[in-house]
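Entry type: protein chain
Record version: 2
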Amino acid sequence: MLLEVDGIHKRYGRRGASANEGVNLTVEAGQVYGLLGHNGAGKTTLVNQIVGLLRPDRGSIRIDGRDVIADPSFARRHCSIQPQSQVPIDGLTPRQAIETLGRLRGGDDTVVRARAARLIEALGLGEWRDTDGARLSGGVKRLVSFCMAAVEPGKLVILDEPTNDVDPVRRRLLWAQVRSLAGEGAAVLLVTHNVIEAERSVDRLAILDHGRVLAEGTPAELKAGVAEELRLELVLDPDAGAIEMPQFTGPHTLIGNRIVATVPAGLVAEAATWARDLRRTGRIEEFSLSPATLEDAYVALVESTIEPATSATVSSEEETDVRAA
């Protein structure tokens, strides 16, 4: 096992908030492991402890069998990380920034130059390779930051929200490179709150909420808990006004002009009839019924920690439900 986190607790200040409460997880070489949770769930705090930037109150962390709490410099030598914040590269071009990081991590000049060129090409960054970092968009800077972590990867590669600000096309290219890192033998720890990306990209994941691991397993294992339900998605007509959700639907969320809810498998016919009537009368533009997703499993796990809605009526102008985070 390349990364072993055992019973990690971290509290800020004597009476401060608890960021991690008894976190346990293991990551193997060649595996993409996801840390999934809302903002403030404790993901980045855990990462900072793994790489030796924070010391846990109690618990143990081992990388390749070495106690990195006792020897944090070992973690910094054997981990490469893409931080959540943008890396400042003003005054450097993407090519210079990527190659410089590779050399600082001990890479051979020839190998680093070749790998940097391959990453730039694979992520479609060629037109910006020699552009000053101050002139780059946020999405391009994010991709450069990934390349800086991947050009001379450690045994453990940590990616904290790697796709923020990245356009959909290059996001797909990025996920291919993440899988490539694992294919080359690195353990990849992916930190994200994007449920859809996590489902498509990880081998295993842990769902964090308020510093605790609520569940851990493969995406299929975590979805098994909602396997008896289907996902109902409605696209609202912006001029249709409020829609009263029927009693047979589970907790619902509003995302833009879409309502997402769950329906018991035995009531699919009733749900389809109800949705067809809404479409026929112009209340919605379209609807779909599909197997439950990891997002549905995530909502089911964390909904007990969030204040429930006071009404089953949903307006097309309502603010997005926080359970969609």
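Comment: The first helix runs from residue 43 to 50.
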